[in-house]
Amino acid sequence: MTERPPEIKTRPDGQNPEVTTDGSPKVKSRKLGGRKPTAPQVEKSKNIHAISFDRPVARPAQMKSRHRGLVLSLVLVIALPVLLTTIYLTIFAQPQYASQVGFTIRQEETGNASDLMGGLSGLLGSPVQSNADLLFEYVQSQEIVERIDAHFDLIAHYTESWPRDPVFSIWPTALIEDVHWFWNRMVRLTYDKSTGMMLAQVRARDPASAQRLAHLIVAESELMINRLNETARRDTMRNAEFDLETALERLRSARQALSEFRARTQILDPQADIQGRMGVLNVLQQQLAEALVEYDLLMMQISDSNDPRLRQMQRRIEVVRNRINEERRDFTQQDVTGDDTDYPRLIAQYEGLLVDQTFAEATYQAALTAFDAARSNASRQTLYLANFIQPSLAQRAQYPQTILIIALTAGFMTLIWSIMALVYYSLRDRG
Known about the structure:
Elements: H1 39-48, H2 65-92, E1 97-107, H3 113-116, H4 128-139, H5 142-151, H6 154-158, H7 176-186, E2 187-192, E3 197-204, H8 207-265, H9 270-301, H10 308-332, H11 343-378, E4 383-389, H12 402-430
Antiparallel strand pairs: 1-3, 1-4, 2-3
Helix pairs in contact: 2-12, 4-8, 5-8, 8-11, 9-10
């Protein structure tokens, strides 16, 4: 059985759509993207009787307007500031020389006679830590700028490069507030609170000027410490004198009150007077005991109760007892001074006056010791400025730090540009 060839359909115009003009079978193809299949694809379709589809090829990348704006912003925000900074630092900026000095506040640790008398002088001096804090603020204050400007013309020195270098110089018409602001730029102060040490770095147009300014800072700081010492000594002496006068007046009042008490009562020492009265009372009690013993012995020897000797002993015993009672009554109830004051009240008044006098004497001794300590401290300088690093003389200009400033400028400008680009694309995606 022979296989029949496939039946070819013809169109009404007599042409066969399944074959070409040369009689070969026509390959069915499907256009995709307007492109015809290539020769290898046609050859493959002949073998497997299948149709192959092509994928579109990506077009070359083209720069759009937003890309151009991004590149322009990169140039304006990063490249241009870095370029301007580099040009300024290398051409216009003038060299600056730095001088470094280190100092701290010390307190005299030598003992004196007042320390042996009670150690009160340690309570009179101000703490070193608080004075170091004061010195740290003083070096950055306007007062030290005015004092240094009186010895060194700061405006004339720092305006030499104006207007060639306006960033690292000050204008000629600057006021004291402007000079103070520029001073804090030229003087870098480091302070360690734990040790009280300070390091000051002074920048100037030449090494000699920087070293001289460092010397002036040390000199003015020492003068400030001397003023603190003088003020502390003056205040300490004034307070010590006032305390001594107050203690002396209290002691005088206490002694005068005790003298008036003795003149009013005609008793120098009530305790001694009481001891005398107690001695009399003790003697009477002893006599009463002896009389009672004699009376008992006589009763044992005499049987007659009407014996005159017994009556005499009884009268003696009665008299001694009455005397004892009278002494006790006088001791507790009798008016001693004529103003209804008995002995217990008298003793209470005397003891109160005696306590006041004792306390006034102790206060006077303490005030006298403090006064001696203040006078001893006033005779010498308690606080002094220790200069542990002498002002250095620079041999090379360390400022301005060109590489560091350029690197910081590039870093900050890159950070700003990145933030701006992120914000732009974020807003664009949301829109």
